[in-house]
Each structure stands twice: as structure tokens, then as C-alpha cells.
């Protein structure tokens, strides 16, 4: 993997303004988000947490402006990002912290669950995963979501960013697996071909709805070829 300059990544995110993106891109980002919500809400470990809301400590690591807030707002959740600008845009008063995933300011074994969504592409992969593992409790889970290096979709809006990044593959996760940090599953999702974004907004929306309903089925056929990967890991 390429060595990335974190000051360049930071400069990019300090000025990141999704509200200026064209409509089709907002729709595609929303499609990814909705798929992530669905996958996590249906996950057994996540469902088991719902019973003990306030005693469950969650870290949304690289939370940006809080796209996944609704997933975690009823738990004892801390939202972390290294961009102050994005944290300011994230309209909650408390529980936000500005820090670097490569050097997390927490003691060992604090969190039951860590979400790390579209962040590992921009950082030192091994350092960041090590830090996530360190601050997880025993039996805690981490959900890592990344842009998939082995995708057959290869939409340039997700793979040709103007910021330093590495695409990540299933084998990268396999390479960091240890006896005390095990992969529970890796699946790929999002199979919308870039061709469809040429369609007008209303038609694109319908096509996206169709792909949303069928994502799991397509994933069974195309296995690890989707645009994104989700890797769920457990700390032993
Ligand atoms: C593509 S955005 C994803 C934001 C959010 N997780 C989401 O999916 O909407 C990547 C995020 O990672 C954050 N980030 C990048 N490098 C980081 C680092 N070293 N430490 C903490 N956050 C970082 C960026 O500031 C940005 O908010």
C-alpha cells in the first residue's frame, strides 16, 4: 500500500463540502449509506446490543459530519474525527472528539463496538486497525467499511478521489487477522454499475431502489466484487 500524507488528507477533509456535489452523486452516496444501515441493523451482534442501550460504549471512528448518527444515537457513543471542520458541521453538542485514528487517546479495552466507515483508505492501515483493536473490549466487534480494491464496478467517483487513498482488498484484512482479532465475516456490497448515473435523477432513483432490494442476492453471485467491503472483526 502507498504511504499516505495525513496532512494532505486532513486539508482535503477540512474543506469537504458534500452539499456542493451534483444530485446524482448525492443519490449514490445515499445508496451506499442505506446499504450500510441495512447490513448493520440486520447484524446479530448489533441486534444483541439494542437491549442494553446506555451501557453500550460505541466509537464512531472517522465519523465525518455524522452520517451514521441515527445508527448509534441511543447508545453511549463517542464520535471521533481528525477534521475539526467536519465535527463542527456535525450538529450535536456533546460526545465529539478531534483525534487521529492512528493514535487513539483512549485506554485499552473501552468500547463494545467500533464503526470505522470509509476511513482506512486514508490512513496507515495496520496502525489504524491495531489502534481499533487495542481500544476494543474483549468480545467487542469492529465493523470496517472500505472501498474494495477487487471491485468490478470501479466507479471513478469512489476510486479516483483527488485525495491520497489506498483501495483495500479482502486479502489486506486477512493479512492483519491474528488469534486475538478474528474476522467474523467479510462481504461486499453495492453493485450499481457507473453507467446508470447517466440517467435523469428520477429514473436513477428507481434503478437504485431496485439495486437496493437485490443487493444481497447479487452479492451471493458476485461475492467479493462489489464497490465496498464490510469486514466485521471480533477481539478475543
Ligand atoms: C469518506 S469520509 C467518511 C466519513 C463517515 N465515516 C461517513 O462514512 O460518512 C472519511 C473520514 O475519515 C476522516 N479521517 C481521515 N483520516 C483520519 C485520521 N487519521 N484520523 C481520524 N479521522 C480521519 C476524515 O476526516 C473523514 O471524516
Automatic annotation (TrEMBL):
It comes from the Archaea. Residues 59-144 form the Methyltransferase type domain. Gene3D superfamilies: Vaccinia Virus protein VP39. GO terms for molecular function: S-adenosylmethionine-dependent methyltransferase activity. SUPFAM superfamilies: S-adenosyl-L-methionine-dependent methyltransferases (SSF53335). PANTHER family: 2-METHOXY-6-POLYPRENYL-1,4-BENZOQUINOL METHYLASE, MITOCHONDRIAL, METHYLTRANSFERASE. This is Conserved hypothetical archaeal protein. It comes from Methanococcus maripaludis (strain DSM 14266 / JCM 13030 / NBRC 101832 / S2 / LL).
